[in-house]
Amino acid sequence: MKIYNTLTKTKEEFIPREPGKVYMYVCGPTTYNYIHLGNARPIVFFDTVRRYFEYKGFEVIYVQNFTDIDDKIIKRALEEGISPVELGQKYIIEYFKDADRLGVKRATVHPKVTEHIPEIIEMVKGLIEKGYAYEVEGDVYFAVDSFPDYGKLSGRDLDELKAGARVEVDEKKKNPLDFALWKKAKPGEPFWESPWGPGRPGWHIECSAMSLKYLGENFDIHGGGADLVFPHHENEVAQSEAFTGKPFARYWMHNGFITVNQEKMSKSLGNFFLVREILEKFPGRVIRFFLLSTHYRSPLDFDDKKLNEAKAALERVDNFVQNLKEVNPLPGEARKEIQEKITNLLRDFNEAMEDDFNTAQAMASLFELVRFGNTQIASGNLTAGDKKLFEEALNVYTRVFGIEFGVLEEIAGEDITPLVELLIEVRARLKKEKKYDLADFIRDELKKQGILLEDTPKGVRWKRV
Ligand SMILES: [Zn+2]
């Protein structure tokens, strides 16, 4: 299996630290709001990585943290009149609702910063003792000049960074690029006691402390969005390697940005989408399918049209699953040519996934399976053995992509039942008055909205399609 490693900028053969086990850490969300689409991409992609390893028989120890204390959380908590920990608890619950809808499995551990303050303090203490960090008036900074490898992950060197960065001048820092490991509490802020007085951890140190606690030194995979490479992950490398004296994560994987109409998604541009908002219009598995339809390192452009395309593509698979359910196969074993074709398609699937998790390519094999399967059903020659093989192959895709096929699920929006029933009633009255044009108009327009009316002997039934 080959993985593109940001650290070496090459695709490398994946060799786990321990045979049969994969230890991985992915930076999780900050708990001050619902997750947005940019958060969802790494969450869904790395969940798929984990699922693929599990499908291959690995045991995966998967850690995804919650950043539940930082400036944004403190500000938001003040606005809402609750404590930062309460705010965190609220958005952690909301996170799991969205993650469930997206088919994301629970991590082995979801550590929270506020529950790991002693570990963080120990690490900061160690870094000061070893000469990599210094305290000034209750703040503790990491001294980037003390770590010669600083910049090795992001490929930047210190001089270049200093020249290019608009780093605010801070009299307290020895080098403007030094970053906070511990922040002295300002009046009114939540704090924890420490050897340097009351304060709270800086952002970067949490991921070093929690990954080392749950995964140990030199663990296998560290993932996150490309926007985290610098400074967050660069700083994680520096702190962790300075502290342990050993290499930190062995494979660094980073997913690309999400763009909206080719522009980077950002709050300031107003093209910022919460997963919760998208779930009002599209089922979670459509969003998941869309996120996996592009290679994870490529930018992914988002709009409703692309989600509709993903929905239509997924419907092709759903229809095949339905056809397969309904077909009455001939008795008999699987035919050799069917067996060979499915084996080849699953081999293509595996090869795509083993080539740096090329989910886009892997999906192509699924659509070939659907196309081929439909022709077999249409031919009338499908045997019971063939049918079973198709079902088993579909199971592989479901397990790894985390997408159930052939299920219709409700979207998260408000209950539209009363409105639809009102329109059904209006349509019935129009028909009574022989105003068939208008009655058909209602049916057709509802269909365009994804609501199908069916006239049955027992009355009108409706369903979402
Ligand atoms: Zn992190």
From TrEMBL:
Domain Cysteinyl-tRNA synthetase class Ia DALR: 348-416
Record localization: Cytoplasm
SUPFAM superfamilies, per the entry: Anticodon-binding domain of a subclass of class I aminoacyl-tRNA synthetases, Nucleotidylyl transferase
Root EC class: ligase
Cofactor section: Zn(2+)
Transmembrane segments: none
SMART domains (UniProt xref): DALR_2 (SM00840)
Pfam family, one: tRNA-synt_1e
UniProt motif 'KMSKS' region: location: 264-268
Classification via InterPro entries: Cys-tRNA-ligase, Cys-tRNA-synt_Ia_DALR, Cys-tRNA/MSH_ligase, Rossmann-like_a/b/a_fold, tRNA-synt_1_cat_dom, tRNAsynth_Ia_anticodon-bd
UniProt-annotated binding residues for ATP: 267
This protein's UniProt keywords: Aminoacyl-tRNA synthetase, ATP-binding, Coiled coil, Cytoplasm, Ligase, Metal-binding, Nucleotide-binding, Protein biosynthesis, Zinc
One GO cellular component term noted in the UniProt record for this chain: cytosol
Reactions catalysed: tRNA(Cys) + L-cysteine + ATP = L-cysteinyl-tRNA(Cys) + AMP + diphosphate
Main location per the UniProt record: cytoplasm
SUBUNIT field: Monomer.
Name of protein: Cysteine--tRNA ligase
Native species: Carboxydothermus islandicus
The gene coding this protein: cysS
